[in-house]
Amino acid sequence: MKTKITITEIAQKSGVSVSTVSRVLNNSPSVSPKKREKIQRIIDEYNYTPSVFARGMVNHTTRNIAVILPDITNPYFASLFQQVERFALQHQYATLMFNTMFVRGEQRPAEELTEADYYKIALEKQVDGVLILGGSMDKEEISGEFLQALNQMHSQVPVVIIGSRVEGCDCLFVERNLKQGVTAIVHHFVALNHERIGFIGGQPGIRITSARVEAFQQALSALGKPVDPRHVVLSDYYAQDGYSAMNQLLDAAGGADSTSQLPTAVIAINDMVALGAIRAMKDRGLNCPEHIAIASCDQFPSGEYSVPRLTSLDQHNEYLGRMAVLQLINAINGSEEEININHTPELMIRESCGGVKTVMQMT
To answer: Is the pLDDT confidence value at 3 over 80?
Structure first.
């Protein structure tokens, strides 16, 4: 049985430099046929498989990309990262994930790293490019200092951001359609004869929250339906926020016994908020969708297995992930031209909106 051989040992046995062996491994035409044959014979003899580092010795790449996100516990970011990782691997790129924990208003230790610190760390890892999912880029107000850090990183390696374009930012963007899906939910609820529709969840001052609330209000106005500001409760993106928001709606209406002032249907910013809201209803003696129908703007894994099954928007993270990776690889290869994408959320109608009947399957 032959022992493993290194690229350095192949170079020594072939009587050439390590860079020449690397050129053969990368199919570079700048190696003479005689040298190539000799090197390839040793490679075949020892069944040598090159590492990404060996492949990168000629073109000075590591085949690594950094993915910087704010909260890996959030199913949206977890799902999106999974898709990014899968498509990157298909193109022989490894992903280094950086979880900045840029979430909520919780107390953080004094040694907490800023997002700009993570940018420096990513560059120290000599990645070929950086993909940013959320974080400070999702704020409505972004500091000039933060934009400067982003632009500085982009001047060294390509940076692609999944999010809304920001003036003064030189990075490449993959933009989501934030409004279309919300409009579809409003139209669906109105078609089910709901007159009072509310909106819960989402942190104020964040672009995705503002865009979805605006789409919600515009859709109702276009259909001639009233928008009651008491039925819009912004909080955050987690289950406990849906729980507190629904309790706030119930308290404002005078409790569960006074349903005349309650919305008959509620749009949640995402599935986690929807689940928290449904739990709050249950704790107050109300059921979904019998008392209040609920739909979500962002489908997470396993929402189809909740009770009731959640009506939700499939944001097609597999498409967003694929387009972001392709955009980044194109930039790594020297093309700064942005890819035109057609991101269209899809409304998945299930039990929580009251628009479908529960079907029991017997086996």
So the answer is: no
